[in-house]
């Protein structure tokens, strides 16, 4: 692979995989390793040669050009800690990666899988391997830290940007830069659209996630501002023990059925798309027709358009969140943003109407 890249100057990854007769997955692993050693440049499906002697051949594994980084690496390294690279965060990571690589830096990712304390473990690991700055999505259950939680994020020795997380005024992490989605606005956007469709009693159905608190605040503010009739309250948890996924789903189904048949609800914002797609046939099986009895808008818009009847949905600007967060961090590390005022940036979600 290295010989072909040096001979041709640049080559598309897909073409190279076909020519070498190996899978793109296998090839990408090798490309990641070679790019990390400074042997090739990688950007948007194309790899190209490094002019001059490859950094990996430098004595003692470092050179003046590399800034003395291990393995001859050059340029800034951005560490990114996220719960997962699937579903919602796939686009967030993709947006960050595009900006980081376009500006000649490299993105490394640590995954937490929402495990308690794992965000700090992953951040420390990325810092120990040379990250110059961090993009952090900590495991804060309601999107912001609880009392005494997350104070370590404010004491990191490198510039840090919170991504899709926020800290309340007075918390040490409140002074950190942050970029996220204005979920409250997104919920209000859905309520406003449903009111325009003639609905006066609208429910919010959302299992507890880091997004839920902001969705609920926007939903409640819109209901009050528009003078709507309140929907039945969300049922309180009957046990101190965490509910299973099946139990949470059954509770959501029961709530919506009761809200329609007894509470006069005629429309609902459901978070997320996957929940809505699973709920709709079960609602219909229990005699609640969609959309005749209950018009539905979903929140996230990951797969809403793929439902058998495509669903209208509110979509956070996930890719742009990652891109803006990465750009802000790179500005902090460079000359453009160094020493400037902190920034709290919220991007507005968009509503997509489907028939």
Task: Offer a few descriptive terms.
17% strand; 355 residues; 5-stranded mixed sheet; alpha/beta; 10 helices
For the sheet with most strands, the description reads:
6 strands, parallel
Radius of gyration, CA atoms, in whole angstroms = 24 Å
How large a portion of the residues is in β-strands, by DSSP E?
15-25%
Q: How many strands?
A: 14
Secondary-structure class: alpha/beta
State the gist of this model.
This protein has 355 residues and is an alpha/beta fold. It is built from ten helices and 14 strands. It has a six-stranded parallel beta sheet. A five-stranded mixed beta sheet has the order 9-10-11-12-14, sandwiched between helices.
Any overview of this molecule?
By secondary structure, the protein is α/β, with parallel strands linked by helices. The chain contains 10 helices and 14 strands. The strands form 3 sheets. It has a 6-stranded parallel β-sheet with strand order 5-4-6-7-8-13. Helix 4 (88-102) runs parallel beside helix 10 and helix 8 (245-261) crosses helix 9. The chain is globular and about 70 Å long.
Layout of SSEs?
Layout: H1 2-8, E1 10-12, H2 13-20, H3 24-36, E2 40-43, E3 46-49, E4 77-82, H4 88-102, E5 106-111, H5 118-128, E6 133-136, E7 160-163, E8 177-181, H6 183-196, E9 202-206, H7 212-225, H8 245-261, E10 267-271, H9 273-285, E11 295-299, E12 312-315, H10 318-333, E13 344-347, E14 350-352
Parallel strand pairs: 4-5, 4-6, 6-7, 7-8, 8-13, 9-10, 10-11, 11-12
Antiparallel strand pairs: 1-3, 2-3, 12-14
């Amino acid at each position: 692979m290295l010989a072909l890249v040096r001979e041709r100057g640049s080559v598309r990854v897909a073409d190279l995989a076909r020519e070498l007769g190996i899978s793109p997955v296998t090839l990408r692993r090798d490309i990641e390793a070679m790019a990390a050693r400074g042997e090739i440049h990688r950007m948007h499906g194309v790899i190209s040669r490094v002019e001059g002697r490859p950094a990996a051949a430098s004595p003692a594994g470092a050179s003046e050009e590399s800034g003395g980084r291990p393995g001859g690496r050059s340029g800034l390294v951005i560490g990114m800690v996220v719960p997962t690279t699937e579903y919602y965060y796939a686009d967030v990571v993709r947006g960050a990666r595009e900006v980081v690589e376009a500006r000649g830096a490299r993105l490394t990712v640590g995954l937490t899988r929402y495990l308690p304390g794992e965000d700090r473990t992953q951040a420390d690991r990325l810092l120990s391997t040379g990250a110059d700055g961090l993009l952090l999505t900590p495991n804060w259950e309601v999107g912001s830290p609880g009392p005494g939680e997350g104070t370590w994020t404010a004491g990191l020795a490198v510039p840090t940007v919170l991504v899709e997380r926020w800290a309340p005024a007075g918390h040490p992490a409140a002074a950190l830069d942050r970029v996220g989605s204005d979920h409250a606005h997104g919920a209000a956007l859905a309520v406003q659209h449903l009111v325009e469709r003639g609905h006066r009693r609208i429910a919010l159905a959302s299992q507890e996630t880091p997004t839920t608190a902001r969705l609920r605040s926007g939903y409640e503010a819109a209901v009050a501002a528009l003078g709507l009739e309140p929907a039945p309250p969300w049922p309180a948890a009957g046990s101190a023990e965490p509910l299973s996924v099946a139990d949470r789903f059954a509770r959501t189904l029961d709530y919506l059925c009761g809200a329609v048949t007894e509470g006069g609800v005629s429309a609902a914002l459901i978070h997320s798309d996957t929940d809505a797609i699973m709920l709709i046939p079960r609602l219909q099986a229990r005699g609640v027709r969609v959309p005749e009895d209950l018009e539905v808008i979903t929140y996230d818009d990951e797969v809403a358009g793929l439902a058998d009847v495509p669903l209208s949905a509110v979509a956070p600007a996930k890719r742009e969140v990652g891109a803006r967060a990465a750009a802000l961090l790179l500005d902090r590390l460079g000359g453009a943003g160094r020493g400037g005022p902190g920034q709290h940036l919220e991007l507005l979600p968009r509503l997509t109407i489907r028939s």
